[in-house]
Amino acid sequence: MRLHQLVKDIHFDDPIWQERHTITRPEQLREVLDEILRPPALDDMIAGLHKASMSVRINPYLLDLINWQDMEHDPIRKQFLPLASEMTASHPLQSFDALDETTDSPVEGLVHRYPDRALLLVTDRCPVYCRFCTRSYNVGVDTRSVIKIRAQSISHRWQSILSHLHMTPRIVDIVVSGGDCARLKASQLLEIGRGLLTIPSIRRIRFASKGLSVLPMKITRDGAWTDALTVVSDEGRRQGVEVSLQTHFNHPIEITSSVLSAANLLFTKGVMVRNQSVLLHGVNDDANVLGRLIKHLGDLHIHPYYVYLCDPVPGIEDMRVDLATACQLEKAVRGLTTGYNMPAFVIDTPGGGGKRLIHSYERYDRYSGLSTFTAPAVKAGRLFLYPDPLHTLSPDARRDWLDPQRAKAMVTDIQRQSA
Ligand SMILES: *Cc1c(COP(=O)(O)O)cnc(C)c1O
Ligand code: SF4
Q: What does pTM read for this prediction?
């Protein structure tokens, strides 16, 4: 079916229909976008998807949000449908699993990096696949450029995760993520939530799902799923455990009337919602866009929690934003609304230092684009590096990065200065 037919379909607001009509192979775009995109643009997009490390997954709801007249600059298109012509070479310091999550895992499926909290990877599926995903080593199906590390299904590792948590009472805070909880069945969500509620040391549980922003009808129409979330939230509250939903909006355009209804439903059901955004070049690296996003989220009682600098994973170099721009943006938006709705701008430091406030760098060399961070409460004595994207550096600096010896010298220089 072509996009204009999909949009007119009477089932458009049905989440199952949306899933069933989700694009999962690049070539499917030929039919759907047939009347919208000229062949060169379509070829550019399909080539981009073949080159990308994330597989394609986008539903009619999102396709309908894209302004196809100006698709090159469209903030939704940029997040899910890369063009080969806009992709640039990866930074030499980029690597998969940039955050080193596979080495911080005591049992498979659990990332324990911070002293008191852990990340539970319950699924490797999401309702959509974002180009800039930090877990591109794991999330989604294999692409032509990446064979993913396969996670066992949650049921296999569930008991060993629970017993590990029982034996590790210093973990009081769990993020249930993956992947995305929207891809869990209601029964799985309930089983995981209730399982975690049996562990006396756990005080906080967060379910991560982009569903609210990319498939809002899931919240309003999939009663079983939303009920499961509400039940866990209510049971948690009765036993003194805070249960919340952690979601992911990047642009005010994503806040549609369906999102409004879904957010309102969660608010009336007493489910707390927090948002994490990723700062993306050409999407939201603009004070006006970011300011509107933060204001709108606050008005929906979605707490704007974090704004992340994009992790340096391969294939998204053109979308990354440099530290200096991020600092300016933070300065520009702070004060627009109440302080408790002002997100913390952070870098999730490559190498596993965890999230650090962007302004807290030790050193920042504007020539090489390298900044350094320390994380005394997470990994004392270690230094973490963040590289600005190459497209923000001078031609000289870009040349230097391509020379392995000079690249190494730039790294050791800033390490020495920060010592
Ligand atoms: C982000 C993250 C958490 C949660 O951190 P908060 O700052 O509490 O939101 C926990 N574990 C890992 C590995 C993370 O990346
Ligand atoms: S929804 Fe989250 S986990 Fe899934 S692809 Fe997007 S960024 Fe990655």
A: 0.94
